Amino acid sequence: MNSLGPSTMFAYMFFLLFPFSLVNSAKDTREDFLQCLHSQNSNSISSFINTPNNPSYSSLLQNYTQNLRVRATKTLEPLVIIKPKKAFHIQTTIICSKKHGVQIRIRSGGHDYEGLSSVSPLPFVVLDLIDLRNITVDLAKKSAWVQAGASLGEVYYTIAEKSSTLAFPAGVGLTVGVGGHFSGGGEGMMMRKYGIAADNIIDAKIINAEGKILDRESMGEDLFWAIRGGGGNTFGIVVAWKINLVDVPPVVTVFNVTRTLEQNATNLVHRWQYLVDKFPEDLALRIFVRRVNFSQDGNTTIQAAFTSLFLGRVDRLLPIVQQHFPELGLTKKDCIEMSWINSTLYFAGVPNGASLDVLLKRDPQGRMFFKGKSDYVQEPIPKNALEKIWKRLYKMDAKMAELQFTILGGKMNEISEFSIPFPHRAGNLFQIHYALLWHEESIKEINWHMKWIRELYDFMAPYVAKHPRTAYVNYRDLDLGTNNIHGNSTYQEACIWGFKYFKVNNFNRLIQVKATVDPDNFFRNEQSIPYLDHYAG
């Protein structure tokens, strides 16, 4: 990952020697592609096509690439950005892309950790689903159809408009698009009660590599299994999901209690690891660990923030926490009762009292340079290892580093690891999310921060899941390995990262589905499920 391979070096040298040839070739490909779109559409395509000549092209490309790191190095820009308004626009994009050898990158919210929805080493177009965001709620059946370009905030808002006691168990990032979130599983604050988002998907509409629109019945159970957690941009383009809504009480309770090292944070984090099987499934308790200033003279310490959602009132919550985690010292004053919909604002860091209209905002907020990684933990991390982690957080080059410990258990233990491609079920205590953010844009700063988080990840190896070491596909990490994007990968290449995301049996099944539904490997990226010849047929 740190050095250029022969093929990459050749491409780089070719670009230096023949930049005009590449630009001219891209221009020709773009014109051919656009002519194809015109021939397929009887109406004007100007309403959903953005070329580099359009004033909106640059803002569409930059504003919805949430991670600035992915554009810090020289990459190809999309030939066009397509914002389909109808499924037919997607179908024609697929037809013309195949005809002219152009890759498709699919974007619903732009939150891919490695930016794979907006960048590619091959000529490509971006299919931005943001205008496909209709949400239809059926209260009688406690279900909803959600188009893939909708954000999680829009989903939550629309459900709450119809009912104060129905919800959906998905993530806390309000501007995250459902297309990518659902495709990778969709962890959230209610997964101990109801599982993840993909566990609650009951139908879908997908456009396959032949341009055909399929629902659950016509696509078959194997493909329906694969798209619920097998990662996006692999099997086709999901344009809508049918989700099962879940019951929530009229009032829930939240709290965010912070403790520093001087307030016994290390012992509290260590103790928390033993509580997965103690807490009821109505209670989720995450920990955010970061370095903070604790005095005006610049002295720093480590802070652990214990953040919780309880599906019930505070009078039920307090006895549970005081019985199983008295060390935290939780009091009634620490807790806030509110509706479930208001809790989605709370966990997104929206100030108290803000309008629910915040859920509908799609504008990117505070884009920064970012690198994330993940692990799953199956045995409590020793106290001395936690202390060594804290020392790493003290480093000057990790001023904006954060570790998130997310408790599992509950319903997650009851669902088979084979029910959908997402395998991280019974046997896992919690997930670790490593996040590092920075403002400086130089390659030196990027390398410095990448080195820090990679060293932390290497240090954690003895304390996390093994054989394989596992990771969450929605926290995409190209350090784990990549496909041969210029052709078909080998099984040996793909299983390096595939086993980590899906474990062995699920990964093998995903490969079999891929061989059946996309034998030309049209839908592909650096970590899409590869096509392998010996799995075909």
From TrEMBL:
Signal peptide: 1-25
Pfam families associated with the record: BBE, FAD_binding_4
PROSITE patterns: FAD_PCMH (PS51387)
Keywords from the UniProt entry: FAD, Flavoprotein, Glycoprotein, Signal
One of the record's GO molecular function terms: oxidoreductase activity
Domain FAD-binding PCMH-type: 74-248
Organism: Populus tomentosa (Chinese white poplar)
InterPro entries: BBE, FAD-bd_PCMH, Oxid_FAD_bind_N
PANTHER family, A to Z: OS08G0158400 PROTEIN
Protein name: FAD-binding PCMH-type domain-containing protein
Family of the protein in this entry: Belongs to the oxygen-dependent FAD-linked oxidoreductase family.
